[in-house]
Specification:
alpha+beta; Glutamine Phosphoribosylpyrophosphate, subunit 1, domain 1; six-stranded antiparallel beta sheet; 17 strands; 22% strand
């Protein structure tokens, strides 16, 4: 009897061990290659992806096609399961409307959407061929199809509904800051599937920007380009146009002034706050561009939080990134989002934290690794220049 029991125990332990190995393999196989030199079909010219010490990908390309191609590719490396969940929900809501949106896109926007879709689709194809799809998709029996431009616009459309009213963006004017340049701070809360926002740096063509992006959509929705800092906020009126919004984000990323960025975003009817190196700050309000005087704070977003920040921000002196962090306080418990603080006087001292982490892969060391910082209202460095990075990996890709 005891011998039979021992056999059962040993058998159960063996089954458990094998299940652990199989599950571990499911979640380890999709982890991205971080270093090396590879030929890469789909690129026009040689490009590079540098991963910093928290796993954030910084893409360096030589033209806009390769830039958005690789943005789609590296985002899918880290967030494919989340992206697939987003598009399934978004396309079910929009139906044929998503394809109609693509038809309205300008040639430049369509090129960016197509390049991004090609990058995501390449990753999907590679994972499928190597039987390395993320464990969540395998366990759900999901074989994701190629990504389409319509998927990106559908996700953007849904996102415009998910950005929570408690989100807020505040700008400390140059006259009130320690270094004499504006500081932009933004809390962006959402109800999208975890892990939420995605941090990335993109440089190629005339674009060089860093910040947070929406997984599945090209461009950066909150960040800076060294000249201008920006962040989107809850819509100022119902029914913002996802085509104009994504187009505005892509155009605005090359702006060198606050007025240039707000002009790019004008048609989108999405609220945004912006500050520039000239000390100007601005915001879109009810679809109109409004550049506020340099000696006044600019605050937009949820009425309660905006009201709470107005007096302390308007009265403070010698504001730095730490002071802005203290003004924002600790994020609500259990919230999903991102916090961005950009100091235009010295952009490499800017800060960012995600409520989860860069990676959506459970076996990655960067899965939920930023959650402890988020929970106490702290941030980590947001490097812009390569000199400020602590590289974890360097991937050089050559066109095939």
């Amino acid at each position: 009897m005891r011998r039979a029991a021992r056999v059962v125990v040993v058998a159960l332990a063996f089954v458990a061990a094998m299940a652990g190995v199989l599950l571990g393999d499911l979640f380890y196989r999709p982890l991205p290659t971080r270093s090396g030199h590879y030929r890469f079909l789909g690129l026009h010219q040689q490009a590079e992806v540098v991963r910093d010490d928290l796993g954030t990908a910084h893409v360096y390309a030589r033209d806009l096609h390769d830039l958005y191609f690789l943005q789609g590719y590296v985002t899918a490396q880290d967030r494919l399961a989340q992206m697939d969940a987003l598009r399934v929900e978004a396309r079910s809501r929009l139906g044929a409307t998503a394809q109609q949106q693509v038809a309205r896109a300008s040639p430049a926007l369509r090129d960016a959407l197509d390049a991004y879709a090609q990058g995501v689709s390449k990753l999907i194809s590679q994972y499928a061929d190597a039987r390395a799809l993320p464990g969540e998709l395998v366990l759900a029996g999901r074989d994701p199809p190629a990504w389409e431009a319509a998927d990106s616009l559908a996700v953007a459309s849904w996102y415009l509904e998910l950005l929570r009213p408690r989100s807020v963006c505040a700008i400390a004017p140059a006259a009130r800051t320690l270094k004499g340049m504006p500081i932009l701070a933004a809390d962006l809360y959402d109800d999208m599937p975890k892990p939420g926002w995605y941090e990335i740096g993109i440089a190629g063509g005339d674009v060089h920007a860093v910040g947070v992006s929406l997984p599945g959509v090209p461009g950066i929705v909150a960040g800076h380009n060294g000249w201008v800092a920006w962040a989107l906020a809850p819509s100022v009126r119902p029914g913002p146009d996802p085509v104009a919004t994504v187009d505005g984000i892509l155009q605005g990323s090359t702006a060198v002034s606050a007025s240039g960025f707000t002009s790019a975003m004008f048609r989108s009817a999405v609220a945004a706050c912006v500050a520039d190196l000239q000390g100007h700050a601005g915001a879109t309000e009810r679809g109109r561009t409004a550049i506020v005087p340099v000696d006044r704070a600019a605050i937009i977003g949820g009425p309660a939080r905006a009201a709470a920040l107005t007096a302390p921000l308007g009265e403070a002196r010698g504001i730095d990134t730490e002071a802005m962090r203290l003004l924002l306080g600790v994020p609500p418990a259990g919230s999903t989002g991102a916090r961005l603080i950009v100091d235009l006087a010295e952009v490499d001292t800017s800060k960012l934290v995600l409520s989860e982490g860069v990676s959506g892969q459970r076996a990655s060391p960067h899965y939920r690794d930023q959650a402890p910082l988020w929970e106490i209202g702290a941030e980590r460095a947001l490097p812009f220049s390569r000199a400020a990075m602590r590289p974890e990996g360097d991937l050089v890709l050559r066109p095939d």
